[in-house]
TrEMBL record:
<dbReference type="InterPro" id="IPR014729">
    <property type="entry name" value="Rossmann-like_a/b/a_fold"/>
</dbReference>
<dbReference type="Pfam" id="PF00582">
    <property type="entry name" value="Usp"/>
</dbReference>
<dbReference type="InterPro" id="IPR006015">
    <property type="entry name" value="Universal_stress_UspA"/>
</dbReference>
<comment type="similarity">
    <text>Belongs to the universal stress protein A family.</text>
</comment>
<feature type="domain" description="UspA">
    <location>
        <begin position="6"/>
        <end position="143"/>
    </location>
</feature>
<dbReference type="InterPro" id="IPR006016">
    <property type="entry name" value="UspA"/>
</dbReference>
<protein>
    <submittedName>
        <fullName>Universal stress protein</fullName>
    </submittedName>
</protein>
Length: 143
């Protein structure tokens, strides 16, 4: 398979495992790797004008930090001879991964499993369950 491997990356051990598997498979398949870091954010908050201004300032800072996390990881993949791109986005992780996969087309999503989450995540489902249920492309959850 060629195409693009969309890999969730947040600098955790779980995301490193997902990148390692995707990179290994990309070497043999010729696929590109697109690293994605999602900053969860709900637009449905009731804030004052001052809180909103502070939130927008923090948002810009968080995006810069996320990009500084992605850039070295993408360069490391490129150093291994792989085509790598990256993006940091705000929003609902499940919706963003599915939207990126639909936009790219021929792709597959890789995410690392972080282990047990909160009880609410176990009952209602975390990102992995959301993607397995809603993704328009195959999803690989790396243990």
């Amino acid at each position: 398979m060629s195409g693009t491997y969309i890999v969730g990356y947040d600098g955790t051990d779980a995301s490193h495992r997902a990148v390692a598997l995707a990179a290994s498979l990309a070497k043999s398949s010729g696929a590109r790797i697109h690293l994605v870091h999602v900053l969860e954010w709900s637009p449905y908050s009731f804030l004052t004008q001052e809180e909103l201004a502070e939130r927008h300032k923090r948002r810009a800072e968080e995006l810069k930090r996320a990009e500084s996390l992605l850039e070295p990881a993408a360069k490391e993949l490129e150093a291994k001879g792989l085509q790598a791109t990256s993006e940091a986005r705000y929003g609902h992780a499940g919706e963003l991964f599915c939207g990126i996969a639909e936009k790219i087309g021929d792709s597959q999503i890789f995410i690392g499993r972080k282990g047990s989450g909160t009880l609410a995540e176990r009952l209602l489902g975390g990102l992995a369950i959301t993607l397995v249920q809603a993704s328009p492309v195959p999803v690989t959850v790396v243990p």
